[in-house]
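Hello, quick one for you while I still have it in my head. A protein chain has come my way and I'm curious about its shape. I'm sending you its amino acid sequence along with the backbone structure tokens. I'd be grateful if you could look everything over and explain what you see. Here's the protein in full, and shout if anything looks odd to you:
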Amino acid sequence: MEVGTSYDRFEDFKEAFDNFCKQNYAQFTIADSKTVEKANKKLDKPFDVRFIYRYVKYKCKHYSRKKTKSKSRGLRVNQRTFDMGCPAELYASIDKATNTFKILRHVTEHNHELSSDVYKQYPEQRRSLGESLKKTTETMLKMGVKVKVLQDYLKTTENHFITAKDLHNMRRKMKFESSEGQTDERIFLNHLEEIIQDDPGASISVKCCENGALQVLLLATAEMKEHFNLHPEVLFVDSTYCANKLQLPLYTFLIEDGSGHGQPVGYCFVAYDTNLIIQTICEEFGKIFNLSRLKVVILDKDLSEIAIVRTQLPDVSVQLCKFRVLEALDREVRKLAFSEDVEAKLITTCRQLVYAKTEASYNEKLTVLTQIAPPEFLNYFYRYWGSSKEYWAAYLTNSVVNLGNTLNNRTESHNNKIKDILNRSSVAEAIKGLMLLHKSKVPAGKHENDVFF
């Protein structure tokens, strides 16, 4: 980029200047310019528009800005700037004599470090992804890939440094452009309408309170309803609380298909996790699905909420996830701070009690528990578990057709995938993400059935 070098078009000059910056790890910014369009307004003989600029002055990113009288009130005291007083600059202008774009001044001296590592961290370089990489990044953001994971991928795989803030801003811009200025409520309704249009057999139940606020949103596609009709004996239910930015609890309903895999048959967003809401969920679920062949519901709610389910489904066996039962018992043992020997014996006996296969074996383990357990733990056990053993004692739960299921791990695993994908999105985005997850899961299940059966 020597002084006196001329270019036929501004694009040719810009390409050469960009290559010079990359080779020398120097980041420049436009400090002053006048466009050809603006200059031509006052000229009888206009400049050719191929030059774009009448003149342009580039200065190093670290040049000193003109000091103007501050109007600051001191509200934002922690400010950062690239200003280091760097003298490097380049000035180019249209040369009337040769009708070219000509470099008239170029100061190449910098007063700071020039290196590849520093150059990559300038905002202009971080955000310049290139068409192919930008498209890949946008696709991954749409799929709900976590920003930290995506940042690490770009750094290790693509050798491109970008900050988490840059990716958050990119996602926010994409969301704004896709929403076309619509409110979250309008986008939410549009998603529901699209689901019905694309899947006429889908069922959507929406319940609101008196002021119009959402209380229950139950969604089941035609494919989900077909899965339930084929395998209606055992229903797994679990809730999660980090699947949307409003923190609305999300209930997931799964069944076990013929391959032994969990298949979602419904999703339900609720405003609150209360007994009244649980009653409403049961009522709405019963309106969508035929529950006459349902034998067992496996969940991990507390006993008061289980009573609501029992009331709504009197002919169905409600069973607690045994892992959650043992987790609660272990937690109480450790909370009471017994000696290590007593603690170990209590935990072992509780496990034997939960998984006792006969009533005689259960009574035998219960006798052992009463002999080794301190009074405070026995009070806790009889208060919360002794009178509700039909929900968790194996000798009782196994007497009902539960297809060998005693845990809710399928639903919990599915909910973990949901949280990874949705990552605290809006309710509208969460619904869209759930549909994408379901569409990706159904073909996989069909493929396995075709291969193995």
Remarks:
- The first strand starts at residue 6 and ends at 7.
- Residues 443-453 have pLDDT under 50 and may be disordered.
- Residues 427-452 form the longest helix (26 residues).
